[in-house]
Amino acid sequence: MNKGIALKVLGRGFYRGNDIVSLHRKKLKEKKRVYYSTSIRINEKMAPMIEELLLFNIEEDFFYSCHVVSAEVKREKWIPENAESYSPEPFKTVPERAWFLLDDIREIKNFDVFKELITNTRSEALLPALQNSGRANAIYFRNRHLIENMEV
């Protein structure tokens, strides 16, 4: 994992954050790919470089790592043409600014993975940054080991 983005999963309507992730995992199992969409502000230029999406909610105590096949962000809310096929039922007709096509969603149970991840802006450890994030902002991150090897 080189470049990623962490997004806090907030409840929508009748669905809690964990329910939302469960719906996406079910659709992924059925179709082998799934869209995760959001209107959290994401840098349009950075979107194509995102390889990993980290979905989390500290209050609900979950962390999921998702492999990103493609990411597209627009200024205005929109819906991809194939959203009908790859989005869970309650979300496929809801326009959003960012759409991530995923081919893997795995629950993070071993927190050792966080030892190598640092935030993109402050180069601080990712896990404490997530734990202290009250708002639903996007947090960009990188792999510390890869950065250290590049600087040599």
Outline the secondary-structure elements.
Elements: E1 3-8, H1 17-31, E2 34-38, E3 52-57, E4 62-78, H2 83-86, E5 96-107, E6 117-119, H3 126-131, E7 139-143, H4 144-151
Parallel strand pairs: 1-3
Antiparallel strand pairs: 1-7, 2-5, 3-4, 4-5, 6-7
Helix and strand element order: EHEEEHEEHEH
Can you tell me the overall shape? globular
- End-to-end separation in angstroms reads 19 Å
Count of helical stretches: 4
Total strands: the figure is: 7
Largest sheet: 7 strands, mixed
Considering DSSP H and I runs of 4 or more, what fraction of the residues is helical? 10-25%
Please list the strands of the largest sheet in the order they lie side by side: 2-5-4-3-1-7-6
Query: Oligomeric form of this entry?
Result: single chain
Low-confidence sequence ranges: 146-152
Name the structural class. alpha+beta
User: Strand-residue fraction?
Assistant: 35-45%
